[in-house]
Structures are given as structure tokens and as C-alpha cells.
Amino acid sequence: MDTTQRVLERQEKRYRLLRHLYDATDGGLHASISLADLAAEAGLSDSEGDAALDYLAEEGLVEYEAFGPMISITHRGVIEVEQSINQPEQSTEHFPTHITQHFHASVGAVQNASQSTAHVSQNDLEKEMLQLTVALSQAMESKGGNVVEFEAGSHKHMLAEIMVERGRLKRLEGMPGHYTLP
Question: In terms of pTM, does the model score above 0.85?
């Protein structure tokens, strides 16, 4: 593996750990989680989690809270993650666009810019979108309507946006976070 690939891999692991911390604490500044649990959730080994955490702490995106170690996201970390969610086409201060795009596993690869590759798993993504479609249909039937709303930045919101791009959902004009089946 060349140097560029190693750098990209480290950046992806750092972002994955930060994003999992954000998701696990719902972006709460006063919530903390153990590094071991967080690293396991993010699919990182203990040493990978330690290395990613060292970088994130040095950059002021996370902080150590107690023994164990327990870690929490900082205000700067919340801003970084929320910027990556709200403006996925733009790099953040610490992470380039191809790192922050929201894919869920690393099985295949998509070239999305010169010299950059985002690793994706079509099977996992397709499975999640199918599950969301079924859940949407059931929710719409039970509520007697044809519109569903997802909180901005939530996992379901991100999946819904991917589904809009693929023509599986329709975004309602002037109503952020509201979708309907096409």
C-alpha cells in the first residue's frame, strides 16, 4: 500500500470514529462513551481506535472524560460532523469530501474524483434502502398518508437522500426532511 492510500485509510478511520461518536451521543456535548465500545462499533481494532482518537483529541474534536478511557465529542467535533452531513459535497476543515461521504462498508470502490476512491458496499446499502422502503410503506399505510419526515442528519435521512438520487424516493419541495414514494 502506498503512502497516499495509508493516509486516506487513516483519515477514513478518524472520520468513522468521530461520526460513530456523534451518532452514539446524538451530538451531545455532555455524553461520553468508552473508547473500546466506540472502536468496536466503528469496526476498528483497539490500536486503530487509539490512533484515531489521538488525532481527534489533538485537533480538539473529541476529549477524554474519565478513566477507561471515556470520550466525548466537543463543540468543534459536532460542527465538523454536522458540516459533513449538511454539505456533503464540500470538504470540512479536517476531512476531504471523499472521506465524509456516507457509505457503510468497504467491499467495492467508486471513483468520485481524480485520485480519490470511496469504498462502498452495494449489498449493505441496497439492503438498508429496501428495509427503509418497506418501513416507509408501512408507516404511510398506518398513518393514512403518503409523506414521511426524517430528522436532518439521521441515518434514515441519509439513506432517504441516497434513495432520492436513485429515484426511489421523492423529496417534497419546500419541506426539508419530508419524502414520499414516487
Answer: no
